[in-house]
Structure formats: C-alpha cells, structure tokens
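Explain this fold:

***
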Amino acid sequence: MSRDNRMEIVVRGAEAEDWEDAAMIFEHRAVIRNLLQIPYMSRDTVRDRYENPLPDRHALVAVVHDRVVGILGLHFNTGRQSHVASLGLMVHSDYQGRGVGTALMAAAIDLAENWLGCTRMELDVFTDNDVAIRLYQKFGFETEGTLRQFAMRDGVLDDVYLMARVRTDAGS
C-alpha cells in the first residue's frame, strides 16, 4: 500500500498541551530504539517536561492535522560554550520519510543560527541509522567521531556517531 507523501506540515514551538501526542511518540518501540533515551518513560514525566520546560531548551513540534507527529529539541550550553546547541529529533513511525524531519531541521537551524546566535549544533546518532544520518548530512552535519559502545540498545552496547554542523560565516 502506498502512502500519500503530500501533507501540510506546520512547525511551531511546543506547548504544554502537546504532551499527550509526545508521550504517544515515545511509546513507539521503533522510535525509541533509535533514541538515546530509555524506553517506558512515564506519561507523567513527559507531561512534566512539556508543562515545565527548562530555560536553556527550545522545543519545536511538527503538526499534521492537529496532531504532533515530530519533535525537535535544542539544548544550549552555557558559559564559554553558549554558542553550542545539542539537538535531538524524533518522528512518529507512521510519518517517517514524509518530510517531517526535514521541516523540523530547517526550522531548528533557522531558529538556532538566525535568532539565538548558535554557531555549532551537535548530535549523537546510532551508526546504523542511515536515514537519520542522510537527513543530518543534507543539512551540513558532518561526522566528527565514533563513540564506541556508547549506548545500550536491545541488550547490546552500540556505537554512535558524533555529528556537528559548524557555521563559519557567523557575523559576516
């Protein structure tokens, strides 16, 4: 069965009311398998993250038909590394490969670089997550190294790439 890949994706800032859709995304084993977070996160924990966001984090959501189907978080460092943001992305398994990740990445880069003064964005991605790696490369992320046996997944310590996008034209 083919999917209709044409759909309107709206990217906006996360709101407290988005927690239920976010919790549903976290519950998908196919999604959590590729995240560096532990499965079985309680719905209370997800709700608390959305109702009480940390001041150094910015969360964007992708909405299709009034439903949050993707989430991208930016966490900014402080002090001498305040120009650096760590990025985390997840897309509902039913919406992967349909432009949601692309829309979120484009919005996050615009926000980070053009509004928040970020010149370095970095992320970790499992070395076998080819789809995500291609997405990140499309936006100028490069692999800076391999973190060997970095994260437990399905009972095995798996390798992760450290990828970064460094903006060299800032201030010009």
Observations:
- The longest helix spans residues 100-114.
- The chain has a mean pLDDT of 91.
- The two ends are 49 Å apart (CA to CA).
- The first strand starts at residue 10 and ends at 13.
